[in-house]
């Protein structure tokens, strides 16, 4: 190798080792373009909408479960009444 190519190899090796030590890839934080700021606003709005929909689904799920519990409680009351009638009939 001549001196120039050896110097380039050493420089590239040094850059690779620096990159591995830092361990970070991609864009640096804090450097956002105007289109990225718009994207962030759109992302926040989508997140808010998703949260609203999630809360609505949760509310419906709780209503369904409360109705299910109420139906089961009515069934338990009916079965206890029937059991009471059978016990009285056997005496």
TrEMBL record:
List the InterPro entries hit by this protein, alphabetically.
bZIP (IPR004827), bZIP_sf (IPR046347), CREBL2/REPTOR-BP (IPR039250)
Annotated GO MF terms: DNA binding; DNA-binding transcription factor activity
Q: Which domain of life is it from?
A: Eukaryota
Gene3D superfamilies (UniProt xref): 1.20.5.170
Specify whether Nucleus is a keyword of the entry.
yes
- Keyword Transcription regulation tagged: yes
What residues does the BZIP domain cover?
41-85
**Gene Ontology cellular component list:** nucleus
Q: Which UniProt keywords apply?
A: Activator, DNA-binding, Nucleus, Transcription, Transcription regulation
Concerning SUPFAM superfamilies, the annotation shows: Leucine zipper domain (SSF57959)
Q: Tell me the segments the record calls region Disordered.
A: 1-45
Residue ranges, compositional bias (Basic and acidic residues) = 11-24, 33-45
Q: What is this protein called?
A: REPTOR-binding partner isoform X2
User: To which species is this protein native?
Assistant: Drosophila hydei
